[in-house]
Structure formats: C-alpha cells, structure tokens
Amino acid sequence: MNDLDAYREKARAWLESVAPTYGKQAREGMTEDEDLAMGRAYQRAKFDAGFAGINWDPEFGGQGLTPLHKVIFEQEEMPFAMPSGYFGVSLGISVPVVMRFAQDREWAKERVLAALKGDEIWCQLFSEPSGGSDLAGIRTKAEPDGNGWKLNGQKLWTTWAQRSDYGVIIARNDPTVPKHKGLTFFWLDMHAPGVTVRPFRLAAGDSHVNEVFFDDVKLTDGQRLSPVGGGFGTAMATLMIERYSASDPAGFGPPLDLFVDLARECEVAGRPAIEDGRIRSAIARTYAMRSGLEAITTRAMRMMEAGMEPGPEGSLNKLVSVRSRQKLSELAIDLMGAIGLGWEQDAWLKDDWVASWLSAPTMRIAGGADEMLLNTIAEKILGLPQDHRPDKGIPFNQIPA
Amino acid sequence: MSILYDEAQQAIANECRRVLDARTDKARLIGLLEETGQFDEAFWKTAVEQGWTALALPEAHGGLGLGLIELGLVAQAAGVLTAGAPFLTTNYGAQQLLLASQDQAARDRWLPALSSGDAIGTVAFAEGSTILPSAPETYLADGRLSGVKHGVPAGLKADFAVVWASHAGKPALALVELAGISRQAIRSFDNGRLYADLTFMGAPATVLFEGEAARAAALQALAHMAVVTAHEQTGGAEALMFIARDYANERKAFGQPIGAFQSVKHRIAELYGLVEIARANCIHAAACAGTSEFTRAAAAARLSATEAYDTAARDTVQIHGGAGVTWESGLHLHMRRARSLAIEQGNMLFWEDLLAGELTGEPA
After folding, report:
1. Residue of A nearest to B351 (CA)
2. Which CATH number fits domain B216-360: 3.40.50.1000, 1.10.630.10, 3.40.50.2000, 1.20.140.10?
3. Which of A351, A367, B50, B337 has the highest Cβ tally under 10 A?
C-alpha cells in the first residue's frame, strides 16, 4: 500500500468513526441553526483530527500535505452527508485568498485558524444583479474615502452570506477605464455598519443564497487584497488557488446504482423496467459517460502523484456530470410515475431523485454556467476565438447599459 | 484502474502518427470507396514492416509481447487518418481466440503467421442483423461447417475465420480456412473494410470452443476487438474535432471567424468532451484487459467512442457547410468510417444491452 492509499484508509476509518455523530442520520429533522451548530462541531472535530486545511501551510494551522491528500479526503467524505456545506466557499475560496493576500499577516493567521476550526465563516461577494458570468461587469463601487474606501452597491447569489462573519469582495474603483482594469479586491466584516444581508429562496426551496447591500460601508486601505485596479487578476488567481477539489461523476446527485435499484422496483407496460430497452439504454449510456469521467479523475490524480499538472480534461467534470444528473433524475421521476410526485424539501441530493432534479439547474449555473464552461474549453483548450464583445476596450462608464 | 502512458507507449503513439502521416494518401483512400475488394495496402505494408502485426502477441508465439494498450495506440493513429485495413482488429480477435483455446496445432499453425503478417485472420459471428445470434443457423456436423455468415470484416482477404456456429444444439466456435470458400463481396459505403458474406457448404472445420465456453470466448473476443476499434474511433473523432477547430478559426462569415459564434464553438467544445470521455474509457479498458472489470470497461469504451465518432462526423461536416459535403473534401471518409466501425463487433444496441446486463445482472 502506498502513502496515499494508507491516507485514504485512515480518512475513511476516521469518517466512519464520526459518522454516527455528524452523518446523514444524525442530521435528520434538524433546524438549520441546529445543523449549523453540528457543522461547526464537525469542522472542529476535523481540525482536531488533522483533516482540516489538509494542503495548507502548517504555519496557518494546515497539515502541509498535497492537494491530492485533500481530494482523497473529500472523495471519502462525500458519501457520509456530513454538515460541511457551510464551509465550502469559506475554506475553498475565501480563506485561501486571505491567507495569501491579506496585508496584516498576524490578523490573517488568526482568521484562518478560526475558520479552520469552524468558529468563523467567510463568503465570497462576486456576482451581482447585473453580472455573474460577466464578472468584470460588476457595478458595486469602491470610492476613495479619507485614507480608506467607501463601498456602495449590491451583490447577489452570495452563498451563506447570512451565516458569514467576513467576506471577500470585488468592487469597481474606477469606471473611467475599461471594465477589467477598474476593479479592486477587498475583505470586509459582514457585520460592519451599512451591510444588509437578505436570504432568498431558490426553486428547490432552500435559502442558502443572499442579496447583500452596501450603503456607505467603510473599509480601511489595509483591507485591500489586490493592487488598486488589479482586482480582476487577483480574482482570477484566487480561483486557481484551490483548483483541485473532489469531483463526482454523479454530478453530486444520486449514483447510478440507485437508478438500477429503482428500475428493479418499477414496471413499464406490465414488465419490470429493468428489461425495458429505453431504461437499459439510459443505464448503459450513463455508466459509459460516468466511467469516462472517473477514469479522467483517476488519471489526473496519477499525474498529480507524479508531480505533473493534470490535463485540462478535468474541466469537463461539472459540465458533463451535472447535465447527466439532471436528465437521469427526470427519467427516474418518469419511472416512478405517480409515486414520483412526492416532494420532501430537506431530502438529500444523493439519494432523492426529486431533490436532485429540482436543484440540478442551480448546479448548472453556480460556479460557472454550462455556456461559460463551453467557452472556456473552446477558447483556452482548443484555441477558438473569443465571442464578439462590444464592450471590449471601452471605458466602463461608456458601455451601453 | 487507469494508467498514464509510459515513455515507450508514447513513443509508439508518436511513431505511428509520424509513419502514417507520411504514407497516407487521402486521394487514394477516396478512390477505394468505389472499388470492392481493394484496401489500404500501403497501410498494411506499413503495419507488417513496423511490427504492428506482432505487437500484441506473446513472445513465445513470435510476437513482441506487448498488449491492448499498445495496439490501441496504433489503432488510434490509424483512426486519425482513416488509414487502416480491417485486419488490425480482426487479426487481434483471431489471436485472442487462438490464445484462449487449447488447440496447440491451430496455435502453431496460425499465430506465427499472424505475427509476421503472412496470414490474415478474422471472426465471423454475425447472421443477419444479429452480431451474436443465440442459436446460429450456421452449423457443424462431422467436423464440417455449413451456413452463411454476413458482413464479415476482412472477409474478402482473410486466410481463416473463427466462426460462431451451432454444434449438436449448442454454440461452438470453429476455425475454418477460407481458401475455396464462396465469398460474396458487399458493395459497401466503406469498401476498404473488405466486407463479405461467407457461404460455407461442408467446409472442414476445427472446433476451438463448445457450449458456454464458446459463448464466453466469443464475448471476450468481441470485447477485445471492440477496445481496439474504440481507439480507432477515438482517433477519428479527435481528428475531426481538430479539423472542425481549424476550419472554424480560418473561415470567416459576417465579418468574423465562424468559430467566434457560440453555435459553432460550443459544438466543437462538446466534441472535446465526447473525445476525452472516449479516450479515458479506452485507456481504462485497455489497462484492465484480463481483469473481471474488462467486459464492462470495454463496453463503456465502445459506447462512448461510437458516440464521439458519430457526433464528430455529423458536426464537423455541418460546421464546414457546403464545403463539408463535397466528394473531394474527404470528410465523408470519416463519416463512412464512423458508421462502419459502429457496426463491426456489434452495434450500439448490442453493447447497451450487454453493459446493462453486466451492471444489473438482468440479461436483455
């Protein structure tokens, strides 16, 4: 057994040992407050057991292992339905930015440690009503104000903002230059005067996203995380810091085995559905596609293990797997017929077809819409031209709204 | 269990590409479309010269002792250019069946000749539209074979075939020499595959497998050949993706390269997804030959590679507009090959059912 296999076993053994305390069954019937409290306790347990900040600098409370170790832990963690979702953005995006770019290093260390222990949560304030895919088109203003800055505007789709202590934010400091050049990156206290957070519900019924309003929110210049006007580059760089995370060929929905089980229970035209050619075709095609994604992931991990950069094909994971989850969930509901009409709002995405189907559209948009992912593949991997962009090179304040 | 190609394997891939690039002539391949009984002789000469015929055979039988991974790389290179003769795949199927059989005489007779390229073998399983009929009409009696086998790849040139037949009410696989057998050429949309209907009338035959062992051996041979073909399909699909990309970058309409239109660029990006999934499945399947996972891995490779090649053929022609549908463009070489390869070793319906059966334990 090599080191990584041993690490996987160790992770699994630990997860199994704490699953009765924090896993799917323990969480059933909880309110969000109770679940978050359990999430914090679980994050603390991870920290104490050495499974938090797995690939982070030990100086910041991390374990100093490789991204591969982190991915392995995430792969093992996924089937347990642990309450880790509250910390996804915090530890996956925002805190690594603070760790790398915050000016006050001692303060940064305190924050990173508090976040790793689950005591503090960070959000990421990027998308706005006027732009999500078009990140450089954001309108929230950061204007010079004395020695610091003053923030005005609105963010949207901010995950867990209502539970966050801090956030990282990108804002426009100069509207007279082309859109990519007038942005600056900051951190802010979510409880500062002038910050208003309003959760709103998504189609699946959950309310983990928010509108966030800024009304003359004061920032010191010490809260700046990028050069003035250099925010877009820093934002792009931050997306690369934690670029390796566990993918799921099932698109974070139910695994194919569950569909096979369902096909055994249901009938089509008086015969077992498992004998129906259309159902068999869906099973076979879905398997072929998912096994391909799995093989891509295995090869990527082998490349990382060998000290190489994994190939760009890893970028297919979310695009392909979530679409497949959406379609398979539709088919599963079809199979169930009248039984498929039930809706349990708090059901787990990985074992409930209706929950999986209802939230699939969110996944196809969040973290890069399908269309943006296709553009990235076309432009960055295949060398096809950019779309026609009428706003290119034009000062932001002269772009027709 | 998936692998990264090692240096030797990468060298094989590069060398195949280099040699085939230098020796493949598109005009000649287009010419072959209108002739029956002709094939890409330059390719086969190259294959023999380069030792590709010996690649996947054990050294004890005169081979190079490599395997499906390396043969897959050769097939992929052939697929890129629609170069190739069907023998690359059919010989491999015949080899696998001989290696799995206990018939020492048949192995000694044919394996060295397959290795040196002096003999060509094929498998003849299909009857009508069924790749592996449960009760084949072709039958063995007193060591002689009678019946008709349809659409046998390489059927016009092969020296012997391993035939799927009935023997006393049970399935069997029998080796038959094809000298003197009636071969009816199929005038096909992809003539270079040398498809023929073979009619046996009491031909002397050697039984290699009988009963359930015959069915298992036939399925294993199909799976092995399907993985070679899946590599060829992936090579073709990838080549088309790049052809589409290059054309979309070059061709201008409405004042910009057509690749700047999302309807075009997204189509090509989708091809990238299909190609990479097919490639990953191919590598995985080749690497798990001989394990219990092999059949499902082969089926996954087969399904994803067929989807990738068919889609790439459809979309690449479409992206070329009028230029894509001319005889000279040769894009139809890929279109034709995508469909002929989709049929050899069993169509999608067969593989879907086989894979669903593997995954659920419920046969079709």
Report:
1. A284
2. 1.20.140.10
3. B337
Preferred mutation among B69, B271, B274, B303 to probe A, highest tally of A CBs within 10 A: B303
Question: Is A280 close to B260, i.e. CB distance below 8 A?
Answer: no
Interface of B with A in 193-252 (CB under 8 A): 241, 245, 248-249
Taking the domain A123-241, which CATH number applies? 2.40.110.10
What does the pLDDT profile of chain B (364 residues) look like in tens digits?
Answer: 688 999 999 999 999 999 999 999 999 999 999 999 999 999 999 999 999 999 999 999 889 999 999 999 999 999 999 998 899 999 999 999 999 998 999 999 999 999 999 999 999 999 999 999 999 999 999 999 999 999 999 999 999 999 999 999 999 999 999 999 999 999 999 999 999 999 999 999 999 999 999 999 999 999 999 999 999 999 999 999 999 999 999 999 999 999 999 999 999 999 999 999 999 999 999 999 999 999 999 999 999 999 999 999 999 999 999 999 999 999 999 999 999 999 999 999 999 999 999 999 988 7
The CA distance from B248 to the nearest CA of chain A, in Å, is 8
Query: Taking the model in full, what pTM does it have?
Result: 0.96
Confirm or reject contact between B267 and chain A (CB < 8 A): no
**Residue range A256-367 in CATH 1.20.140.10:** yes
B359:A274 CB<8 A = no
CATH class of this structure's domain B121-211 = mainly beta
Given an 8 Å threshold on Cβ–Cβ distance, is A284 in contact with B284? no
Question: How is domain B7-116 classified at the architecture level of CATH?
Answer: Orthogonal Bundle (1.10)
Task: Please report residues of A whose CB lies closer than 8 A to that of B304.
Answer: 288-289, 292
Decide if A384 and B248 are in contact by the 8 Å CB cutoff: yes
Q: Is B53 touching A (CB cutoff 8 A)? A: no
| Residues of chain B contacting residue A274, judged by C-beta atoms under 8 Å apart | 360, 362
List the structure tokens of A288.
């072929």
Nearest to B269 among A288, A292, A377 (CB): A377
Boundaries of every domain in chain B: 7-116, 121-211, 216-360
